[in-house]
Amino acid sequence: IAHLDLLLGLKELDGIQWSVPVVTSDPPHDDPVWYPYFKRIQKRGKLLYILAKPEKVESLISELSPKGLFISTFCRSEEEVKELLSKAKLWTERKLKRAK
């Protein structure tokens, strides 16, 4: 975090993979506490890669720009994957309509 602005200033850097140390006192990668940082990354035109729990995908799509956003998640079955992808498409379309 201390070097985020320096990294965002690098023209050669296309994106940021958000990862926090795995320490029990730290919020997980997809926690809303990180959203201001995610928004800073996106405002600087960088791609953003986030590891998230399936139940956090809607919140991330709602809060962030879908442009250049890559969310890596997991599901327990192919059925869950299809359902999440379908919902993510709807959430993204809704977000894009509100942005107009």
Q: What spatial order of strands do you see in the largest sheet?
A: 1-2-3
Uncertain stretches: none
Q: What sequence of helices (H) and strands (E) makes up the elements?
A: HEHEHEH
Fraction of residues in H or I helices: 40-55%
Strand share of the residues?
5-15%
Oligomer classification: single chain
Average pLDDT confidence is 92
Total number of helices: 4
Task: Kindly report how far apart the N and C termini lie.
Answer: 32 Å
Radius of gyration: 14 Å
Shape: globular
Largest sheet: 3 strands, parallel
Q: Please provide the count of β strands.
A: 3
| Coarse structural class | alpha/beta
Description of the structure:
The chain is of the alpha/beta class and about 100 residues long. The protein is built from 4 helices and 3 strands. Strand 1 (about 15-20), helix 2 and strand 2 form a beta-alpha-beta unit. About 10% of the residues are buried.
Secondary structure: elements and pairs:
Layout (H helix, E strand, L loop, with lengths): L3 H5 L6 E4 L16 H9 L3 E5 L5 H7 L5 E4 L5 H22 L1
Question: Tags for this entry?
Answer:
100 residues, 13% strand
Summarize the structure.
The protein is of the alpha/beta class. It has helices spanning 4-8, 35-43, 57-63, 78-99; strands at 15-18, 47-51, 69-72.
